[in-house]
Design goal:
Blueprint: H1 2-24, E1 27-30, E2 36-41, E3 47-54, H2 68-75, H3 88-109, H4 116-133, H5 141-148, E4 152-158, E5 163-170, H6 174-187, H7 193-209, H8 212-224, H9 238-243, H10 246-256, E6 262-268, H11 272-283, E7 306-311, E8 317-324, H12 330-343, H13 349-357, E9 361-369, E10 376-384, H14 390-406, H15 411-430, H16 432-445, H17 450-460, H18 463-473, E11 479-485
């Protein structure tokens, strides 16, 4: 036990030094077309983690194209003019006919004057064309090629602020990665668009409309924000998805998925000069594109508590959100510390009171939500333990929040929270993929050096600052509370 404690102390004390040491080795280059390249050499294993992140996500959409970034995430896995097809020259005329029929259906389906028989005829024609198109499609060719060449963790994800494509692969396959990903940017074919649009609608039904945790989260965010596009789900609302067009997807991709909005991060076993030349060779000739416009919508100050109750056939649950600033505001660091003090583990205040001592709840959690580029939310989730009610749990949570406004957090609690936060960062930085993800994400948000400063910043925050934070933000007029309950008949 003593040895374990000593090792832990050494780990915690060394974390800021370790982070600084890592960051001293990050090389940053910018190509003539605006592409940002971050590289960090690690020669302990013959692998490389490669992340491509675009500074575009759900927050950059408007009324006519909500959900387009997420749908594009799906579409960009479908292949190019050479990958994902058996014969693109023969496929292309068929793709044009599919788009023509699909566009006509979309134009007519929302017009009350449209003859239903005409719509049905067009849908039958589209189905026939899609069936004919299958002969040309090679499914999942990107993932197959990566897997056959030792790649692991091939994935993509879209958030409010960014879209990322990632892979880890043997170091001697880095040029293969560059060839595939540059081809994706320059020659993507958005094949199977109308089929994939329905796949995403089904994903939405499964993850949000019929899923209690997705349902309550979506309601929380949509009601906490009234103006800012953070209020809209990344996946889009169902009517949005159903009306997204192939032309809109192509236009959004052409404008924003370009070097000026792009961060490539490489971490692993390579020589930086060689990697830079490789990236320049494959990505340097791509046209810069258009910088993603900054969101100018500003969420007005909330002037009263919002309370929402959702009827759903599931165990009751509770979500509470408070508006807060985003990084690099110091209050964002304060929020991280307070969320850990409240629900950061078995020794946290809410866990001890609600789950252990009073057994009011079966679970409790606290986290930052929605996005990171703009002002966002601090959220507390809890699930009551039968026979206790949501209202009992809510009252106990509010008591603990009020206590934070009156009584300074103890130095022991504060240091414990600091330790957990910096250790979590350190744990991610230990792996090539984890470090690449952190560097890529923070660079896309405003600068990767945030990672260097994080431990030092939270070390400067004292109990009095947390009391001030609690009084500024953890108040009823800044609060949105959503309760999910079984329908009372």
């Amino acid at each position: 036990m003593r040895r374990l404690i000593i090792c832990l102390c050494v780990l915690l004390l060394s974390q800021p030094l370790y982070a600084a040491h890592i960051m001293d080795r990050v090389r940053e280059d910018r190509l003539e077309n605006g592409l940002t390249l971050l590289m960090l050499e690690r020669h302990d294993t013959p692998t490389v983690s490669a992340y491509i992140t675009f500074r575009v996500g759900g927050a950059n959409e408007g009324q006519g194209n909500r959900g387009i970034a997420h749908l594009l995430e799906h579409m960009l896995l479908k292949g190019t003019k050479t990958l994902g097809t058996r014969d693109y020259a023969a496929e292309k005329p068929l793709l044009d006919r599919i788009e023509d029929v699909g566009t006509r259906i979309d134009r007519l389906k929302n017009n009350p004057a449209t003859d239903p028989a005409e719509i049905e005829g067009l849908r039958a024609r589209l189905k026939s064309l899609q069936q004919e198109h299958k002969q040309y499609v090679v499914k999942d060719e990107f993932s197959r090629i990566y897997a056959e060449n030792g790649g692991v963790g091939y994935n993509a994800f879209t958030s409010k602020d960014q879209t990322t494509y990632l892979i880890s692969l043997p170091a001697n396959k880095l040029e293969l990665w560059a060839a595939i990903e540059s081809d994706r940017l320059q020659n993507s074919v958005l094949r199977e668009f109308y089929t994939e649009r329905e796949v995403v609608r089904e994903e939405r039904r499964r993850s949000y409309e019929s899923n209690p945790s997705g349902l309550i989260y979506e309601a929380l965010v949509a009601n906490a924000f009234t103006v800012h596009p953070y209020r809209n789900p990344v996946i889009g609302w169902d009517s949005d998805i159903a009306n997204l067009s192939l032309a809109e997807a192509r236009d959004f991709f052409t404008r924003y998925y370009r070097p000026v909005n792009m961060v490539i991060t490489l971490v692993g076993d390579f020589e930086s000069d060689n990697a830079l030349e490789l990236v320049r060779k494959y990505f340097g000739a791509i046209s810069p594109g258009i910088p993603v416009p900054r969101v100018v919508d500003v969420e007005p100050q909330q002037r009263g508590e919002k309370q929402i109750r959702i009827n759903f056939d599931a165990e009751p649950s509770l979500s509470i959100a408070f508006h807060k600033p985003s990084l690099p505001h110091l209050d964002d660091y304060c929020a991280d510390l307070l969320m850990d003090v409240l629900a950061g583990g078995a020794s946290s205040r809410l866990y001890k009171r609600l789950v252990v001592d009073e057994q009011l709840a079966s679970s409790v959690a606290s986290y930052g939500a929605v996005g990171s580029r703009y002002a966002n939310l601090m959220v507390i989730d809890a699930t009551p333990r039968y026979p206790h009610t949501v209202d009992e749990v809510k009252a106990a949570i509010y008591e603990e929040l009020d206590r934070l406004k009156r009584e300074p957090v103890s130095n022991i609690e504060l240091q414990r929270a600091r330790n957990r936060l910096v250790t979590d960062n350190l744990r991610q930085m230990r792996s090539n993929s984890g470090l690449a993800r952190l560097l890529s994400s923070y660079e896309a948000l405003g600068g990767w050096r945030y990672l260097v400063d994080y431990a030092a910043k939270i070390e400067t925050i004292d109990p009095a600052q947390l009391v001030a934070f609690a009084n500024r933000y953890l108040k009823a007029m800044n609060r949105t509370a959503v309760v999910l309950q079984r329908e009372v008949k």
